[in-house]
């Protein structure tokens, strides 16, 4: 055991030296850089345009720098944070240099500065850089390609912020440059004609004619075409993984139509279904019909788990959205004459918050994926364009239209796409963080429901703890099951492990400017923090530490297995134990003090927590981090919840405000502690003083003492009570016997 402690100290020092070296290297490189001028001094223009000869003069409005080859402008480089709020999960900006050509096609993006804790000291930054390479060649003006969802496990929020800030920053730059270039911007913004849906319009008579007239859009892909597309994109491994050996086989026949148009809806859905579906539409909502046949499903199975149809997406004017399961309805058949039988038909409601204009052009983008390994996939997208044909619309002159001068008319066609980007970028009704938060809560409805159910069950256990404690076999099984749920679902599947870094970030945000949207971006973490705060206010920190902490569950379960195999448990004298519990408070106060000076430094020092290594990154880290976590778990085999008792700064942080708890429902008898020490001996964290009272700062609400409180086989008080009752019953029985004997004797001497 002494050897383990020595090795632990050596590895901890090694770990902090490694972390400090990484931090020092990063700080030396970044120092206090924050502006475009400072960053381009460290990044050569050839990183964005290999043929470039250098940068031009930095322009202030809009803030960008042209990239030059001689006198020729190849494109522009700009900083995302100059155009949008790029705050990440830490609340601090994620700064990215973006290089685009003159058509606003991205040439390269480079992460230059961030304060994301999971990337600083967890996930290698190279993984983020590899993810960002996928943006090369994308055009967020004419279309918006689908990013790989949650491509980096554990850094989902960071990746989502990166994606949104790149898209919006490109659109904003395009809009501002267009404004600068236009001599008469008011004329380009007003169309010559206005269009409305013509409900009385007539459609074609059969399926094929509807396709020919553009009333239905059709995309046909063969297996060979998809193979070639993967190959052209440089994804050769995916190109060799075919759904069929015959390249002529149909990969997918994909069809779509806007069936909120009355004429199309009645013909394709039938009068009854159209009336039913359209009657539920709110203002500014639309209906889109999607049908598919072939080897590839446009629905997939992701929507069953996450509530989102991740294989198809609607894109319009540089923005896009996925369909969600709550807005989905299955359709049996398409009613128009000549329509084929389809394997999949779906009717989707497009809600107002998608900001979809049914009169404008839009794309239905199909995301094709092929598994290239046990946990890896390659993706490629195909577009199915759609626009309501003019014969289904009514056309009228726009009274506000003013004919542009000839020079402007020549350029108007070239500026149409950028004008669309201007509208998208200039009318942003919510921040990036708020949008990501809203999307995350909508996407994770199933996860939210499961976690909510688990939290309600935990509240029920606390509220009715006497009943549970009286049924000890059932309760022990329930607790083991709950700890397994916490470890494998909350920790293993969701990676939702709270950390002292969250506490430091929260307190820092109170000083620097609080914004709920930063904390709402990860629904699972937010819900766990709410549950932890609620539990601490009513009881103490044990609601989290004893039930909802994946690493705590891992320690308790591994220790239980060790006990089953007869591993002898080690207990310090209570005086030593009591002094050691102060260590975690000292660690927390040191981290808190460092966070007031430098939050980044405190985040690095918070590696005293093994949570990221064991739960979030699942031991996929450098060896000192892994060794540190494994040694803590090894010690925990001999000292139950060793880390929780003596080292956990998060537990210390939660214990301090838990002093304000409203209830203390843990019951004690007069004999507890004097003379009985049963509860104190069996408490998994030694949170019971020898005198018998409970140390609420250390209690993890496992309710083991309450099980003993109601155990008539082990509780001294109950055993004494039972003994008293037995003695009383025996005395009463003897008295009754004597009385009966006396009465019998009296009857013998005094016969009637």
Automatic annotation (TrEMBL):
Signal sequence region: 1-21
Superkingdom, natural source: Bacteria
One Pfam family here: FMN_bind
4Fe-4S ferredoxin-type domain boundaries: 663-693
Chief site of localization: membrane
Keyword Kinase: no
Entry's Gene Ontology cellular component terms: plasma membrane
Subcellular location: Cell membrane
Keyword Cytoplasm: no
Entry protein name: Electron transport protein yccM
């Amino acid at each position: 055991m002494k050897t383990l402690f020595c090795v632990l100290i050596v590895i901890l020092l090694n770990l902090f030296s490694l972390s400090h070296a990484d931090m020092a290297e990063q700080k030396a490189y970044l120092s206090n850089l924050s502006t475009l001028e400072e960053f381009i001094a460290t990044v050569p223009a050839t990183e964005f345009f290999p043929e470039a000869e250098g940068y031009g003069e930095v322009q202030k409005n809009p803030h960008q720098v042209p990239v030059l080859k001689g006198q020729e402008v190849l494109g522009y480089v700009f900083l995302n944070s100059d155009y949008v709020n790029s705050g990440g999960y830490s609340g601090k900006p994620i700064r990215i240099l973006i290089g685009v050509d003159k058509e606003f096609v991205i040439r390269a993006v480079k992460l230059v500065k961030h304060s994301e804790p999971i990337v600083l000291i967890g996930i290698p930054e190279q993984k983020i850089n590899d993810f960002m390479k996928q943006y090369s060649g994308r055009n967020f003006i004419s279309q918006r390609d689908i990013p790989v969802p949650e491509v980096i496990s554990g850094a989902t929020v960071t990746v989502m912020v990166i994606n949104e800030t790149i898209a919006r920053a490109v659109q904003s730059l395009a809009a501002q440059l267009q404004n600068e270039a236009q001599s008469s911007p008011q004329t380009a913004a007003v169309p010559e004609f206005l269009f409305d849906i013509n409900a009385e319009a007539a459609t074609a008579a059969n399926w094929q004619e509807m396709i020919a007239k553009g009333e239905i859009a059709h995309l046909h892909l063969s297996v060979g075409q998809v193979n070639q597309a993967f190959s052209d994109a440089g994804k050769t491994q995916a190109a060799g993984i075919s759904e069929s050996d015959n390249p002529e086989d149909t990969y997918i026949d994909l069809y779509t139509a806007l069936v909120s148009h009355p004429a199309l809806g009645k013909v394709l859905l039938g009068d009854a279904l159209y009336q039913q579906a359209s009657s539920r539409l709110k203002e500014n909502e639309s209906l889109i019909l999607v049908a598919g046949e072939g080897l590839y499903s446009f629905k997939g199975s992701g929507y069953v788990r996450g509530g989102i149809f991740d294989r198809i997406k609607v894109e319009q004017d540089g923005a896009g959205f996925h369909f969600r399961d709550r807005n989905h309805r299955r359709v049996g058949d398409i009613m128009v004459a000549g329509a084929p039988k389809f394997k999949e038909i779906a009717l989707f409601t497009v809600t107002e918050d998608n900001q979809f204009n049914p009169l404008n052009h839009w794309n239905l983008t199909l995301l094709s994926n092929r598994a290239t390994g046990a946990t890896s996939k390659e993706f490629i997208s195909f577009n199915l364009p759609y626009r309501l044909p003019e014969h289904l619309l009514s056309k009228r002159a726009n009274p506000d239209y003013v004919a542009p001068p000839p020079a402007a008319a020549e350029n108007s066609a070239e500026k149409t796409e950028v004008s669309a980007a201007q509208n998208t970028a200039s009318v942003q009704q919510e921040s990036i963080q708020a949008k990501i938060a809203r999307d995350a809560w909508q996407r994770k409805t199933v996860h939210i429901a499961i976690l909510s159910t688990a939290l309600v069950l935990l509240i029920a256990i606390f509220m009715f703890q006497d009943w549970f404690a009286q049924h000890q076999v059932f309760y022990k099984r329930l607790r083991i099951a709950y700890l397994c749920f916490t470890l494998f679902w909350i920790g293993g599947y969701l990676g939702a492990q709270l950390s002292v870094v969250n506490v430091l970030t929260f307190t820092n945000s109170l000083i620097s400017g609080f914004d709920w949207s930063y904390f709402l971006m990860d629904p699972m973490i937010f819900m766990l923090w709410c549950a932890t705060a609620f539990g601490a206010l009513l009881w103490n920190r044990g609601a989290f530490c004893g039930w909802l902490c994946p690493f705590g569950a891992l320690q308790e379960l591994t220790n239980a297995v060790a006990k089953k195999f007869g591993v002898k448990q080690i207990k310090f004298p209570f005086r030593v134990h009591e002094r050691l519990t102060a260590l975690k408070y000292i660690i927390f106060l040191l981290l808190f003090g460092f966070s007031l000076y430098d939050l980044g430094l405190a985040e690095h020092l918070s590696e005293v927590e093994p949570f990221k290594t064991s739960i979030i990154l699942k031991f996929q880290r450098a060896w000192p981090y892994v060794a540190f976590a494994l040694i803590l778990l090894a010690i925990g085999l001999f000292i139950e919840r060793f880390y929780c008792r003596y080292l956990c700064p998060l537990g210390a942080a939660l214990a301090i405000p838990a002093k304000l708890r409203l209830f203390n429902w843990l019951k004690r008898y007069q004999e507890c502690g004097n003379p009985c020490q049963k509860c104190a001996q069996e408490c998994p964290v030694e949170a019971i003083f020898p005198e018998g009272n409970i140390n609420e700062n250390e209690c993890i609400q496992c309710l083991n003492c309450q099980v003993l409180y109601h155990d008539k086989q082990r509780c001294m008080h109950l055993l004494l009570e039972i003994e008293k009752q037995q003695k009383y019953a025996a005395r009463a029985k003897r008295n009754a016997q004597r009385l009966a004997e006396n009465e019998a004797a009296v009857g013998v001497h005094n016969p009637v």
